[in-house]
TrEMBL record:
<feature type="transmembrane region" description="Helical">
    <location>
        <begin position="482"/>
        <end position="504"/>
    </location>
</feature>
<feature type="transmembrane region" description="Helical">
    <location>
        <begin position="198"/>
        <end position="217"/>
    </location>
</feature>
<protein>
    <recommendedName>
        <fullName>Glycosyltransferase RgtA/B/C/D-like domain-containing protein</fullName>
    </recommendedName>
</protein>
<feature type="transmembrane region" description="Helical">
    <location>
        <begin position="12"/>
        <end position="33"/>
    </location>
</feature>
<feature type="transmembrane region" description="Helical">
    <location>
        <begin position="363"/>
        <end position="381"/>
    </location>
</feature>
<feature type="transmembrane region" description="Helical">
    <location>
        <begin position="39"/>
        <end position="57"/>
    </location>
</feature>
<feature type="transmembrane region" description="Helical">
    <location>
        <begin position="69"/>
        <end position="90"/>
    </location>
</feature>
<feature type="transmembrane region" description="Helical">
    <location>
        <begin position="253"/>
        <end position="272"/>
    </location>
</feature>
<keyword id="KW-0472">Membrane</keyword>
<feature type="transmembrane region" description="Helical">
    <location>
        <begin position="299"/>
        <end position="317"/>
    </location>
</feature>
<feature type="transmembrane region" description="Helical">
    <location>
        <begin position="164"/>
        <end position="186"/>
    </location>
</feature>
<keyword id="KW-1133">Transmembrane helix</keyword>
<keyword id="KW-0812">Transmembrane</keyword>
<feature type="transmembrane region" description="Helical">
    <location>
        <begin position="422"/>
        <end position="444"/>
    </location>
</feature>
<feature type="transmembrane region" description="Helical">
    <location>
        <begin position="524"/>
        <end position="543"/>
    </location>
</feature>
<feature type="transmembrane region" description="Helical">
    <location>
        <begin position="332"/>
        <end position="351"/>
    </location>
</feature>
Length: 685
């Protein structure tokens, strides 16, 4: 029987992660040296992506076991394609920086147009070092004479390809495609660990969850990180499917292990918290070396290479952001160093004895499974017994208090809701998803420790660690759908994968219990039970998504930004005279290509306008409200309203999943000052 369907599914589900890794390997150095241009990207990126695609096809082994029929392959591809189509239809246009997607979008726009970092402040084109002027804005740090974006470069490096092709309108279409490819990669991971016939169900359940849909509609980093991590896990399963000795010539398993480690490490170029999620890979690499498996060394080397990229990306291009996170990042770096050192010492100490026998004493696997169950129970009881308080800053507390008032909750601004993390998973996968996923985790933990499921060692270690660490401390502003970001990369995939594995296990058990006479009742029992179990996850997930995501966020922002830029002369320097600079400063600087400063008061406005005029440039005043702008604009100046958006935006909820959008009102009024006419003096009073 032909193995073509299984071969196609195996290769197609890892090819996107290979291609993404190949692109990041060449795109990040180009940005680092300031050559990230369309021509350089084409010259370096096309060969790198082509080689990565060739490696995916060439290195991916034949699936083991009975060859699957065509229908699981077609169904998995159909789920991924349908997910992508829906996301494209509902894609957002977040360009005004209120939260992370617009921050990433403006990061993307800058490097796509300029090819380098940092961002010049342009103070020499405004008023030099005149007091009362600032150049940074939300998510863009003013450091000396430069501006540095907040986040890491991985997602913008990918989204910039869409900008090169079709400008901002092309950029915002890339995340839905990446999200669809991540769903496809997840289907491939499920096919490897559960079986090809279960891949469509796994892909469908993940695709139905609200956080996965929501994150891939905007320029968030989570879809990119999810594709790397899920693709890396699938590649790692392929790499470890064949036993090769520690010593000897390297072959396909070694290359696959190195590629998987590289993908895990490159996740750090996308998100700094991938440093935590990759920690189990270090320990598993040590176990492979102890087991005299040849894949251990290339896995560790690939991880080190990718993490090296990530550390350079963080400390080279996002140092102000990492300094802002130092209270949590510094301990994490210490923990990472301790894990690497402990793995090295432990490997050396146990070298003669090999991998410890986890099935001895015989009660240990069952006890470990019980610990998993108790941990889940503890998370479920946590809101009742150990409610969490404290945000670390007053602004977050004030915001939480406002959302509490809107939602009709008791006013308690210090409440951070981290204790609700397991309930968040229940919101988006239903009670069935939480229950089946937990049962799957318990059973698989026992099987792994009994050495009966070696293919699950690495995936279970990575997923269990990520789920435990994330649910224990989400470390995010707790309103939804914003807080659901923490569940996207690995938490929801872990629950779905474990739930599907549990359903497959239950189906096999029910089939074994069926009467041997082949009666119709026995044949129907297992499929019926699986269908009921699948619906117990799918129906709540789909209902929450349909109710909470029936809108497009920030629609019209791209057109409004183009109108704004058209209203600003090319030789202008812009002075922002009210709080508009906090949200729109980088939009004007990056999309309109003119220097921008925010004035603290009327005197600063006067100094800025005088400095701009002295430099032979056109002064432009901008404000969010017309009356505020007219306080500073000279009499008779033409005041325009080029940026005017009335759209939907993501809501904020604390104790229930989001169900309807909030209104977004975006406004910028501008006044182009005539030559030689100073701003109104009353603005200085």
């Amino acid at each position: 029987m032909s193995r073509t369907p299984g071969r196609l599914l195996a290769r197609a589900t890892v090819l996107p992660a290979f291609a993404l890794a190949g692109w990041l390997l060449v795109a990040f150095p180009l940005l680092l040296i300031g050559w990230f241009t369309p021509l350089a990207g084409l010259a370096a990126g096309v060969p790198a992506v082509a080689f990565a695609a060739y490696a995916a096809v060439r290195w991916t082994p034949e699936p083991r076991g009975d060859p699957p029929p065509w229908w699981p392959v077609a169904a998995t591809l159909l789920v991924a394609a349908a997910f992508t189509a829906v996301q494209l239809a509902y894609h957002a246009e977040a360009l005004v920086i209120r939260r992370d997607p617009a921050s990433y979008a403006q990061y993307t726009i800058w490097i796509a147009q300029h090819g380098s970092l940092p961002i010049p402040q342009g103070r020499a084109l405004i008023a030099g070092d005149a007091p009362g002027l600032t150049y940074g804005s939300l998510a863009y740090y003013q450091v000396g004479d430069e501006i540095w974006p907040q986040f890491l470069a991985g997602a913008p490096l990918l989204y910039a390809v869409g900008h090169w092709i079709a400008g901002p309108a092309g950029m915002v279409l890339v995340p839905p495609v990446v999200g669809g490819l991540a769903v496809l990669a997840f289907g491939g991971l499920a096919a490897r660990l559960v079986g090809a016939r279960w891949a469509p169900l796994a892909a469908l359940l993940l695709a139905a969850s609200l956080p996965v849909q929501w994150a891939s509609r905007s320029t968030y980093s989570e879809p990119v990180a999810q594709l790397l991590m899920l693709g890396g896990l699938a590649v790692a399963v392929d790499a470890l499917s064949e036993r090769v000795p520690l010593r000897g010539r390297w072959g396909r398993p070694h290359l696959l292990a190195g590629a998987a480690g590289l993908m895990f490490g490159l996740g750090l170029v996308v998100r700094i918290d991938m440093l935590r999620d990759a920690l189990p890979v270090v320990a598993v690499a040590g176990l492979l070396v102890l087991a005299r498996r040849g894949q251990g060394v290339p896995l560790a080397l690939g991880l080190a290479a990718g993490a090296g990229y990530g550390l350079v990306a963080g400390f080279g291009l996002s140092r102000p952001y990492l300094e802002h996170l130092s209270a949590s990042l510094d301990p994490l770096l210490v923990i990472c160093g301790a894990v690497v050192a402990a793995t090295a010492v432990g490997t050396a100490a146990l070298w003669r004895h090999g991998v410890p026998r986890t099935d001895r004493p015989p009660w240990l696997p069952t006890a470990a499974a019980a610990v998993v169950a108790l941990a889940a129970v503890g998370l479920a009881l946590r809101p009742l017994l150990w409610p969490e308080y404290g945000h670390g800053d007053e602004a977050t507390a004030n915001f939480v208090g406002q959302v509490q008032d809107i939602e009709g909750l008791p006013h308690d601004p210090d409440r951070n809701y981290e204790d609700m993390s397991l309930y968040w998973v229940g919101w988006y996968l239903g009670l069935g998803g939480v229950l089946f996923g937990t049962l799957g985790a318990c059973l698989l933990t026992r099987r792994v420790l009994l050495r009966r499921a070696p293919e699950w060692v690495l995936p279970l270690a990575v997923m269990a660690w990520s789920v435990a660490a994330t649910l224990a401390r989400p470390a995010i502003t707790p309103d939804h759908p914003w807080a659901s970001r923490r569940l996207v990369v690995l938490v929801l995939p872990a629950f779905v994968l474990l739930a599907v594995w549990f359903l497959a296990w239950a189906a096999r058990r029910l089939e074994a219990l069926a009467p041997p006479d082949g009666s119709p009742g026995g044949r129907v029992l297992a499929p019926a039970a699986v269908a009921v179990g699948a619906l117990a996850v799918l129906v709540p997930a789909a209902a929450t998504s349909v109710r909470g995501l029936d809108y497009r966020s920030d629609v019209g922002t791209i057109r409004a930004a183009e109108s704004l830029c058209a209203a600003i002369p090319g030789d202008a320097s812009v002075v922002l005279v009210d709080g508009v600079g906090h949200y729109y400063g980088q939009l004007i600087r990056g999309m309109c290509g003119v220097p921008v400063a925010t004035a603290a008061d009327g005197g600063a406005v006067l100094r800025a306008v005088e400095g701009i005029a002295e430099r032979g440039r056109t002064p432009v005043l901008a404000a969010e409200k017309e009356e505020r702008l007219r306080m500073h604009a000279p009499p008779g100046a033409l005041v325009e309203h080029p940026f005017h958006v009335r759209s939907d935006q993501d809501p904020s909820t604390l104790m229930e999943p989001p169900s309807s959008p909030w209104a977004f009102h975006g406004d910028i009024w501008v006044a182009v000052l005539p030559d030689g006419v100073p701003p109104a003096r009353e603005g200085a009073q």
